Amino acid sequence: MKHKKKYIPVLWICLWISFLMLVFSSSASARDVLVSSVSSSAEGGGPNLDIVRTIAERLEIKLVLLQAPFKRRLLMMANGEIDILVGLVKHPDREDYIHFVEPAYKSRSDAVFFVPRNKADRITRYEDLYGLTIGTTIGAWYSPRFDTDEKIRKEPVPKGELNLNKLLLGRIDAVIFPEGAGIDLGYKMGISDQIEIAIFRFNRIKNIHIGISKNSNIMKKMTHYEGLIRQMIISGEIQQVYRAYYRQRGLPVPAV
After folding, report:
1. Is CATH 3.40.190.10 correct for 32-107+207-247?
2. Cβ proximity of 135 and 166 under 8 Å
């Protein structure tokens, strides 16, 4: 019995040390992880995905990617499930739970018209839209003048893919999209060589930011992380990553 009493405390000490090592190891791992999210459509890649990967590399931190629709991503930012999002528009209601890194890395989000290949000059001015049938997406807004112009024939659909298919079938004359979204969609559908952007476009000022969740664990290192990301924006590194995504695929580069 005396022999056993000598070793029971030692066993408990060993177990306790092992437990503490596990806890501290888990905490260290948590600090070395950057969690972000992308939509399911970005699974095969996208400029925002390339940007967040580049940020993680520069921070020398492991990136964990989750998939979720946009509204769900905002909720995950609010409760701290994800640390960072790329491609955000700054709204007052979002500032309660998102720290927006300044300056914006993108200030343009033009609305453009996609037409069949070699027909870019079909729409060179606003008046050319009259007499054409334009595919739109339900719930989307493009330009106050266009959105309220009842003289223009519009065919709204729930998904942009439907419009591009109708365009190739000759059932509509053009499709309007935010520039980057339309280029990406055409690429993922494998029809980039069959469509092009018309000459006329709506130039839209729209500041696009990188946001950090105010409920994220990385807020503890906010000064370091934000400083590095800001420098990447000011130096043009983020913009270069954005443009490279399109250039490497032989696609038109959206206005930044």
Report:
1. yes
2. yes
* Strand ranges across the sheet with 62-67: 62-67, 33-38, 84-89, 205-213, 98-108
Token pair recorded at residue 235? 């130096």
The CATH homologous superfamily to which domain 111-202 belongs is Periplasmic binding protein-like II (3.40.190.10)
Fill in the amino acid letter for 81.
E
Please state the rounded mean pLDDT for residues 35-47. 72
pTM over the 0.90 mark? no
Q: So what's the pLDDT on residue 68?
A: 86
**Is the distance from CB of 111 to CB of 176 less than 8 angstroms?**
yes
What are 35's strand-pairing partners? 64
Reported as a single tens digit per residue, the pLDDT across 108-124 is: 999 999 999 999 999 99
- Please list the residues that pair with 89 across neighbouring strands: 208
Domains 32-107+207-247 and 111-202 fall in the same CATH topology: yes
Query: Is beta strand 205-213 parallel, antiparallel or unpaired with respect to 98-108?
Result: antiparallel
- Parallel, antiparallel or unpaired: strands 33-38 and 62-67: parallel
By three-state DSSP, how is residue 35 classified? strand
pLDDT over 50 at 69, yes or no: yes
Q: Are 101 and 234 in contact, with CB atoms under 8 Å apart?
A: no
Confidence bin at 27 (pLDDT 50/70/90): very low
Cβ neighbours of residue 246 under 8 Å, at least 6 residues apart?
A: 47, 183, 252, 253, 254
Q: In the chain, where are the structural domains located?
A: 32-107+207-247, 111-202
